[in-house]
């Protein structure tokens, strides 16, 4: 799988509680057709957003489905899940994004669950040269369909017309960043181009201006500020918990909950 790892190339490039952000974008199926075959997760969430393209997923408990263009899958691994994510051959360019979000220690061993959100469920608000898809959180009184999360996250997909500004109020101590997918923006006196990320410092609001138009993912969330013990697809607080998880995998006793709640 060829992809651009925007965050999480090493432990210093994570943005608490975000561990990783992958952008898989290609018009060549050979780049993505091998996908992500069977692998475990514990102690974290994966959030997959397809702009274009389709990903088939299945898990150790027999759940199956397809994330289609415009859809989101918000998967809480919690105590443990074994799944696969396999992109389908797609005509034209595929663009998808996957975040890994850490879970707080209190919720690491929660029951696994999926949220499958279809594109029709995601409200778009349009105003003054902006088109904002509200995936999670709230903007101008419009709330996204992903609610009651383990940790509260704002997740917007923003399209800015040329010469327009996106402004958003955030509270002081949040982790706030945007990943520019198309075009470029100006923020904090810098030009940030497609393929780059802008991380905002402490403050009460963000302002992003685009001279020629842009589309970006915008995220804000409260950091966990907890110790992170991370190996591959398993993210716990201590080495001991990590070792236990891998031991349980070896012994075939990794899966704790066979009741996989599917929420929509
Ligand atoms: Co996975």
Structure, described:
Strands 1-2-9-4-7-10-24 form a seven-stranded mixed β-sheet, with no helix packed on it. Strands 11, 12, 15, 17, 18, 19 and 21 form a seven-stranded antiparallel β-sheet that branches. The chain folds into two domains: 1-119, Jelly Rolls; 122-222, Jelly Rolls (Sandwich). The longest helix has 13 residues, at 239-251. It contains one helix and 24 strands. The mean pLDDT is 92. With 264 residues, the protein is mainly beta. The chain has one helix at 239-251, and strands at 4-7, 18-26, 36-41, 44-52, 55-59, 64-67, 72-76, 81-87, 94-102, 113-117, 124-127, 130-136, 138-139, 142-143, 153-160, 164-169, 175-187, 190-193, 197-200, 205-210, 214-221, 229-231, 234-236, 261-263. It is globular.
What attributes does this structure have?
264 residues; mainly beta; Jelly Rolls; seven-stranded mixed sheet; seven-stranded antiparallel sheet; 1 helix; globular; binds cobalt (II) ion
User: Structural class of the secondary structure composition?
Assistant: mainly beta
Strand order of the largest sheet: 1-2-9-4-7-10-24
Strand content: over 45%
Q: Unreliable stretches, pLDDT < 50, 5 or more residues?
A: none
CATH class of the largest domain: Mainly Beta
Largest sheet: 7 strands, mixed
Order of helices and strands: EEEEEEEEEEEEEEEEEEEEEEEHE
Strand element count: 24
Instruction: Identify every distinct bound molecule in the structure, by name, code or SMILES.
Output: cobalt (II) ion
Q: How many angstroms does the end-to-end distance come to? A: 29 Å
Mean pLDDT: 92
- Estimate the helix proportion, in percent: under 10%
CATH topology of the largest domain: Jelly Rolls
Q: If helices are DSSP runs of H or I spanning 4 or more residues, what is the number of helices?
A: 1
| Assembly state | single chain
Would you identify the CATH architecture of the largest domain?
Sandwich
- Give the overall silhouette: globular
The rounded Rg comes to 18 Å
């Amino acid at each position: 799988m060829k992809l651009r790892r925007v965050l999480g190339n090493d432990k210093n490039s994570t943005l608490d509680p975000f561990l990783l952000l992958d952008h898989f974008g290609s018009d060549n199926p050979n780049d993505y057709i091998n996908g992500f075959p069977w692998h475990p997760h514990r102690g974290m969430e994966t959030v997959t957003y397809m702009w274009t393209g389709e990903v088939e997923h299945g898990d150790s408990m027999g759940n199956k489905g397809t994330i289609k263009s415009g859809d989101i899958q918000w998967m809480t691994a919690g105590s443990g899940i074994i799944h696969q994510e396999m992109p389908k051959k797609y005509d034209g360019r595929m663009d998808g994004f996957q975040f890994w979000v850490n879970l707080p220690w209190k919720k690491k061993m929660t029951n696994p669950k999926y949220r499958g959100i279809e594109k029709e469920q995601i409200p778009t608000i349009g105003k003054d040269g902006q088109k904002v898809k509200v995936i999670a959180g709230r903007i101008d009184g419009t709330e996204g369909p992903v609610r009651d999360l383990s940790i509260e996250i704002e997740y917007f997909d923003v399209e800015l017309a040329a010469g327009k500004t996106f402004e958003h109020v955030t509270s002081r101590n949040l982790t706030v960043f945007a990943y520019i997918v198309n075009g470029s923006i100006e923020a904090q006196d810098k030009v940030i181009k497609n393929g780059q990320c802008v991380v905002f410092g402490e403050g009460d609001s963000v302002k992003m201006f685009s001279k020629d138009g842009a589309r970006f993912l915008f995220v804000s969330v409260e950091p966990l500020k907890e110790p992170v013990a991370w190996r591959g697809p398993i993210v716990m607080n201590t080495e001991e918990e990590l070792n236990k998880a891998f031991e349980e995998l070896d012994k075939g006793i990794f899966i704790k909950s066979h009741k996989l709640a599917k929420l929509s």
